[in-house]
């Protein structure tokens, strides 16, 4: 299934992939160093640990490479009629709590700042909604009722939120 990236998100993940590839290369070199001149790998903790780390790094590289290759760049549409990636939505949860949530693309999730991926349970429930819609969803075994109060265009918060997210993740 295709993953949907913002241009900023794709660039971030491509840079992350490059970093993972360099890390895997360094770990591969450590395997050789730990084995030593005699290729002594028997009962060699350093060698075994480097090999395990290399396998993890290689798996991450493979998974992220596949995700990027299968991904599609989405262009946010400056509209506030129907929710999609990039929109900020003012919601009323369970008739008690009012808050704003912004729907992010793949890998764009920062719940403390109100950014949720379109793949999250809340993101899935909100995609395609219009003002006045009431959505019922299950989060953590609890049924939640969400009412759509207002929809804001992507220019309202989206670009600022993903800048903060990617800056935080690079630190």
Derived from helix and strand composition plus strand pairing, the structural class reads alpha/beta
Strands of the biggest beta sheet: in what spatial order?
5-4-3-7-6
SSE order, one letter for each helix or strand: EHHEEEEHEEH
Give the N-terminus to C-terminus distance in angstroms: 30 Å
CATH class of the largest domain: Alpha Beta
Shape: elongated
Q: Strand content of the residues, in percent? A: 15-25%
Helix content: 40-55%
CATH homolog superfamily of the largest domain: Transcription elongation factor, GreA/GreB, C-terminal domain
CATH topology of the largest domain, anyone? Answer: Chitinase A, domain 3
Largest sheet: 5 strands, mixed
Molecular structure report:
- By secondary structure, the chain is an alpha/beta fold.
- It folds into 2 domains: 4-73; 88-170, Chitinase A, domain 3 (Roll), CATH 3.10.50.
- The chain has helices at 7-35, 45-70, 121-126, 158-170; strands spanning 4-5, 72-73, 88-93, 97-104, 115-117, 134-139, 142-152.
- The strands form 2 sheets. The protein has a 5-stranded mixed β-sheet with strand order 5-4-3-7-6.
- A hairpin with a 3-residue loop joins strand 3 (88-93) and strand 4 (97-104).
- Helix 1 runs antiparallel to helix 2.
- It is elongated.
- The mean pLDDT is 89.
């Amino acid at each position: 299934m295709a993953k949907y990236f913002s241009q900023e998100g794709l660039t971030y993940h491509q840079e992350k992939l490059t970093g993972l590839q360099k890390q895997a290369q360094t770990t591969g070199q450590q395997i050789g160093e730990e084995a030593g001149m005699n290729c002594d790998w028997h009962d060699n903790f350093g060698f075994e640990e480097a090999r395990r780390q290399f396998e993890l790094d290689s798996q991450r590289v493979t998974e992220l490479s596949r995700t990027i290759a299968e991904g599609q760049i989405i262009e946010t549409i400056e509209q506030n009629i129907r929710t999609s990636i990039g929109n900020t939505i003012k919601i009323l949860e369970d008739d008690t709590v009012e808050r704003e949530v912004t729907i992010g693309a793949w890998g764009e999730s920062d719940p403390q700042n109100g950014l949720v991926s379109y793949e999250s349970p809340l993101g899935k429930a909100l995609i395609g909604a219009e003002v006045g819609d009431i959505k019922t969803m299950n989060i953590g075994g609890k049924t939640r009722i969400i009412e759509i109060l207002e929809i804001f265009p992507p220019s309202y918060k989206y670009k600022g939120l993903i800048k903060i997210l990617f800056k935080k993740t690079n630190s």
